[in-house]
Amino acid sequence: MSNKREKVKFSQSVKNNSFIIKTVFKSSPGLCIMRIIMGVITGLNHGVTVYLISEILNSLDKGDTFETILWKTVIMASYMLAYQLFYSWHWKIYYPMRKLDFIRKLHKRFFIKANEIDLARYDTPEFYNDFIYSMQNSDKSILRTLDTFSDIIRCLVASVSVFGVVLSVDPIISVVILGFSIITMIMNIIQNNIYYKYELISNVIWRKDWYFQRFFSLADYAKEIRLTKISQNMKGEFEKNKDEERKITVKRQKELLFTQIMFSLIHIAEDLFVILYMAYHLMETKTILVGGFAIAITAANKVRGMFSEFQWRLSDINQTSLFADKVRKFLSLESEIVSGDRELDTFESIEFKDVSFEYGDGKKALDGVSFKVEQGDRIAFVGYNGAGKTTVTKLMMRLYDVTSGEILVNGVNIK
Asked: Is pTM, for the whole model, over 0.90?
């Protein structure tokens, strides 16, 4: 376990996540487009809802007739019903079906690529681990990336729509809300950096703790624990590790306590300013209505929340980019063993001429092997395990290419 978290450059993150979106669009265009549409619609819903509620409150404040208020209420109820029906249809019917289609096509693409890749790549542990990881996590991580992009769109559209409604009520309060939201976002960055800093430190402690658990729980060490004094030393190291963990936890929580107090002070200051400023203009200057007052209070919370979520989603995008890079590299692999276009009409002979071959570990499985088999000959390969019998067959089938020498069929190199 490394005590360093993997990071991806911004340009590489953009490239990887663009690849993910293209992959989804290629397998299921409808799913990709609908998630973008849902991001826009759910984002607009925040601004539309705030506006419709403010219109009803303004009508009450202005003393409009009951019929006018009733019609505005009916319009709002109809809109909310239509939105909920569309929202439910998307998540309960459309999305589950498109999701299954996408997963089926994605896995099929993986299977085809796995069949095309040279067998030699499977002898490399790094490649095999990445391949298995990609197969097991591809659908969940790719859909998570798509959902994150949709949420980013939702946050941006919601912030703009709500901010636009507030701007129409009072430009000054809109600037104040924006300013406090930016300050909150900066505090979120500070808090995330604290988490990240102590995560790096804690990884070393967690790795030691994991080692202690294995030492005292695995049967492999049971005899040594009973026959030697090593367990006493290990217990002492265990206590030191736990003491260090406690010190780090206390230090981290003190820093987080400071940021939490700052968060609370910022939120209280924003709420007090918005309430007092809007109340003054509602009651003294009479320049706004009750609806405008309600918009400002609601918008302060919505925009603040959207800015925080937007920042969190961007961080999530960076992490999913790490996985996307593995998938992109796997799907972009090309076979190094390319078949020719000649066909074998009749078999006459197969010949190994000074053939040597090495697997990925660098050890020679065959070294200078030469023989010739003609039509009608009967031969047998006899040898101990690892002598190279199976390797000869694999080379004949051209599952691998020889390291040196050549294999001839009817006098023609099989390459």
From this structure: no
